[in-house]
């Protein structure tokens, strides 16, 4: 699965999808921070579109929880409390474990695609584009998750990863953190190659513990 193969958040038209992608990209890059307001007129002008697709995109993202809509005030990038972040991390942990318990072993072509995604992540270790490195990291994980037959749970994971996106990126800003992910991914790939469920689960859980950290102090890291 390539970065561009990710399922669109909404399917209500090319203009709406473009606005959704732009907003998600601005959140991913840090241009939009948790709690920051989005203004329809400014977005429409910047994207060269009418306010109609902008409004639809904002409402779609609010339904997904990526944005928060405050009556008479507008739309804001959702800001999570420490307790909410802990819940989000716990949901991700539970659903990822469930999905990993039901994956089909990848064929050589799928395994090579997973390897290539990780090598692309290594090549981007020193890149200053946080959105791009996040997308590669995400694509690596979902190339594995989508080996599972539990498609509805995988779709829910997709939604939760979107909610967690700004916080995952915050933990991937340093080159050392990105290199660590690459190296831990190698252990995950080894478990897939060996078709060893025990090794695969152990490497995935270890990866999650190291990258998401201690929930008591940094409850969410991804």
From TrEMBL:
SUPFAM superfamilies according to UniProt: GntR ligand-binding domain-like (SSF48008), Winged helix' DNA-binding domain (SSF46785)
Cross-referenced Gene3D superfamilies: GntR ligand-binding domain-like, Winged helix-like DNA-binding domain superfamily/Winged helix DNA-binding domain
Pfam families linked: FCD, GntR
Biased composition regions of type Basic residues, renumbered to the chain: 204-213
Recorded superkingdom: Bacteria
Region ranges (Disordered): 201-222
HTH gntR-type domain location: 13-80
Keywords of this entry: DNA-binding, Transcription, Transcription regulation
Name this protein carries in UniProt: GntR family transcriptional regulator
Organism in which the protein naturally occurs: Pseudonocardia yuanmonensis
């Amino acid at each position: 699965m390539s970065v561009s193969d990710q399922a669109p958040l909404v399917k209500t038209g090319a203009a709406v999808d473009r606005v959704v992608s732009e907003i998600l990209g601005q959140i991913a890059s840090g241009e939009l921070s948790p709690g920051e307001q989005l203004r329809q007129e400014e977005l429409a002008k910047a994207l060269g579109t009418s306010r109609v697709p902008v409004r639809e995109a904002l409402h779609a993202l609010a339904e997904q929880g990526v944005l928060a809509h405050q009556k008479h005030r507008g739309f804001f990038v959702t800001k999570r409390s420490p307790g909410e972040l802990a819940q989000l991390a716990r949901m991700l942990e539970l659903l990822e474990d469930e999905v990993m318990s039901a994956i089909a072993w990848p064929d050589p072509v799928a395994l090579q695609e997973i390897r290539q995604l990780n090598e692309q992540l290594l090549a981007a270790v020193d890149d200053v584009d946080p959105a791009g490195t996040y997308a590669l990291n995400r694509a690596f994980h979902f190339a594995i998750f989508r080996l599972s037959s539990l498609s509805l749970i995988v779709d829910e994971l997709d939604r939760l990863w979107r909610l967690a996106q700004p916080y995952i990126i915050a933990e991937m800003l340093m080159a050392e953190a990105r290199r660590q992910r690459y190296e831990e991914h190698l252990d995950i790939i080894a478990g897939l190659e060996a078709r060893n469920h025990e090794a695969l689960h152990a490497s995935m859980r270890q990866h999650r513990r190291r990258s998401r950290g201690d929930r008591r102090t940094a409850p969410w890291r991804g």
